[in-house]
Amino acid sequence: MANFAKPENALKRAEELINVGQKQDALQALHNLITSKRYRAWQKPLERIMFKYVELCVDMRKGRFAKDGLIQYRIVCQQVNVSSLEEVIKHFMHLSTEKAEQARSHAQALEEALDVDDLEADQRPEDLMLSYVSGEKGKDRSDRELVTPWFKFLWETYRTVLEILRNNSKLEALYAMTAHRAFQFCKQYKRTTEFRRLCEIIRNHLANLNKYKDQRDRPDLSAPESLQLYLDTRFEQLKIASELGLWQEAFRSVEDIHGLMSIVKKTPKASLMVVYYAKLTEIFWISGSHLYHAYAWFKLFTLQKSFNKNLSQKDLQLIASSVVLAALSVSPYDQTRSASHLELENEKERNLRMANLIGFNLEPKLENREVFSRSSLLAELVAKGVLSCATQEAKDLYHLLEHEFLPLDVASKIQPLLMKISKLGGKLSSASSVPEVQLSQYVPALEKLATLRLLKQVSLVYQTMKIESLSQMIPFFVFSMVEKISVDAVKHNFIAMKVDHMKGVVVFGNMGLESDKLRDHLTILAESLNKARAMIYPSVNKASKLGEVLPGLAEIVDKEHKRLLARKSIIEKRKEEQERQLLEMEREEETKRQMLQKKTEEAEKKRLAAVFEQQRAERIRKEIEERELEEAQALLQETEKHLKRGKKKPILDGEKLTKQNLLERAMSEQLKERQEQEKRLQKVAKTMDHLERAKREEAAPLIEAAFQQRLVEEKVLQEREQQVSFLIPRFDIAFSFL
């Protein structure tokens, strides 16, 4: 572990290592500097070092190193210069996002590139074999190899930044921005699993914020700026959840918003509340809770009418029609009529919970479930003038379903209205939070309601009816669907009927004495006779009459009072038991947290000890390598002295030199020198060949001329010698005679 006198020296050393391709050593050097206790005071060079540090972490995808370095830098900057930490984190996220986008673009380019030899062939044979063996397509393989590692690193980047910035009043704006970018990442790439984890992470951060209230630099939720940041984050979470189709997570986001409001006891701005109720309508409709869906639409209508000054008459009419149709779509009978006591209690708690979510009632005021019902909602719509703002088709449909008694013609009159309603709707120009309203989504529920109303009215007029006649009166469904609807209605005592398929008829009502119809008539008759008797024989002493009629009233009241007191006592005991269990769970969680923290500290100590040992071994290894390098350099210099030309081969920066390497270098130098000498000799020989050939080409005509001249001279000489040889015998003869 090298100690640098100045941080700038560490940065220079890291750049030198990067230039020779040793990025891991450069990263380790910067990491040692950042985590060193020597540089705990912020200074400007540390910011440049952090920029280089996060660049190396992104290039090498070292998320753990990045997290450790950012945590140490947060400690340094927390009280001095928080803006420097913001710049470093923004740069870190920008680099991660850029790398992920580059990997994605590169994968797309590889997929779209034309890399085939035969344009008439669909795929290459090796691609077909690889696809059959791996069971994957080319795009899937390229995504797994190129895109997925960078997307994992980007997701790890968001988690790291959120963990570093959590519950810090000085960094809450950057925390909100990071959460928004993480939401957009999940939305852009359809990452539903990561979105759920992200929501859980943010939810745990808020829970810890409320749990540990003595934390330093803790955000103050009562401050308007902090509250607005947290609300914007939750509303963005709600929007992305609905766009991804994660309705359960969207509902949990609604509960998060309501819980946040319960903590600070403040209502958000009207623009945010419009988004809140718009998303609630979608959630309740998808979940099949039509009653809560209608109440959410009613709240949305109230907000738009009160606070949206730019709302046009057409848009107001569409929203009012949605409210009316949503209320009419609610089932006309109570589905908890035959439920058990436990189910009724659960339904009551559910109604109270939904009422708080819809109306932001923090006090449990809704004690009677009849207040939160279809009939009360329709009465409120009429009283508040919502019905008068709706379209004429919605008004006519309301009157036909709720006030008219037309057992034979109700379906035929409702059908054209539903056809017109299915064509209404569209985009809203003046209500940005409610971009589109489609009334056609209520048509199936309204057809079912019309069928129930027709069966109810027919049951009051007819005792029996042929199945064919009843099917002709209901144009919305086939008779099998009508029978399915009627079974559910009979189950909840909305109508009394049964189908006789053998006779092909439908029988309405029960012919017994205890049928609802006959019992109602007998009750009305008894009340009328009692009124007539009271008029003929007026009562003198009402108290005595009451005592005669209800002799055991006091005893009944006393028993009911005792029963209620006992029930209250049981409820209190249950609440105390629940609080005790919650307290025990909190204690267990605190114990587990302390144990986990202790284990984490021990693991951190072991890790630091292992790092220390690793650095010590690395230092010893480097010293040994330096000693061997010096010996190898001396051997290299000794080898170079014996070379003929004495030319020294340059040594590359960062190249590891050993004795074996230097011996190989010396042998290669000798071999190269020998090869160069052979090349020079070959060149000289070639030059001599060319020179000899040129000399012979020039000397050939001269030799030929000399040869011809020599022939002439030899011929003359021969002739002379012949003459001499011819004359010599004659001279000899002549001398002999003398």
Notes on the structure:
The chain is mostly helical and 738 residues long. It is built from 26 helices and 5 strands. It has helices spanning 7-19, 23-34, 44-60, 63-77, 82-112, 125-134, 138-165, 172-188, 192-211, 224-243, 247-264, 270-287, 290-307, 313-328, 341-359, 374-383, 386-389, 392-402, 410-423, 443-461, 467-473, 479-491, 516-536, 542-549, 553-641, 659-737, and strands spanning 425-427, 436-438, 464-466, 497-500, 505-508. A 3-stranded antiparallel sheet has the order 3-5-4. It has a two-stranded antiparallel ribbon with strand order 1-2. A hairpin with an 8-residue loop joins strand 1 (425-427) and strand 2. The protein is elongated and about 220 Å long. The termini are far apart.
Characteristic key phrases:
elongated, mainly alpha, three-stranded antiparallel sheet, 738 residues, 26 helices
Gyration radius over CA: 49 Å
Could you tell me how far the N terminus lies from the C terminus, measured between alpha carbons in angstroms? 130 Å
Work out the helicity level. Answer: over 70%
Q: Widest sheet: strand order?
A: 3-5-4
Tell me the strand percentage band. Answer: under 5%
Give the overall silhouette.
Answer: elongated
Average pLDDT figure:
78
Say how many strands there are: 5
Q: Largest sheet, if any?
A: 3 strands, antiparallel
Low-confidence stretches: 112-123, 132-139, 360-369, 542-546
Q: How many DSSP H or I helices?
A: 26
Structural class from helices and strands?
A: mainly alpha
Offer a concise description of the structure.
With 738 residues, the protein is mainly α.
